[in-house]
Amino acid sequence: MKAILLTDGKAGHENQSRAFARALGLDFELVPVRFKSPLHKALSYLLDFVGIKTLRLFPTLPLPHSLLITHHSSPPSHPTTEPPNHPTIIGTGSGTFYAAKSLANNLGAKCGVVLYPRGYSLAGFDCILAPSFDNPAKRPNVVEIPANLVASDAAFYEKGVAAFKERYQGATENLVGVIVGGPNKCSTMTAEWMKARLDEIFAANKGAELCVTTSRRTPPDVEAVVDSYPWAYKLIYSKDHFNPIPAFVQLAKKLYVTAESTGMLSEACTFGSAEVVALDNLKAGPHKFRRFVENLRREGYVDGNRKIDLSAEFAKARELMGL
Question: Can you list the domains of the chain with their CATH numbers?
Answer without folding.
Answer: 2-146+311-320 (3.40.50), 154-298 (3.40.50.2000)
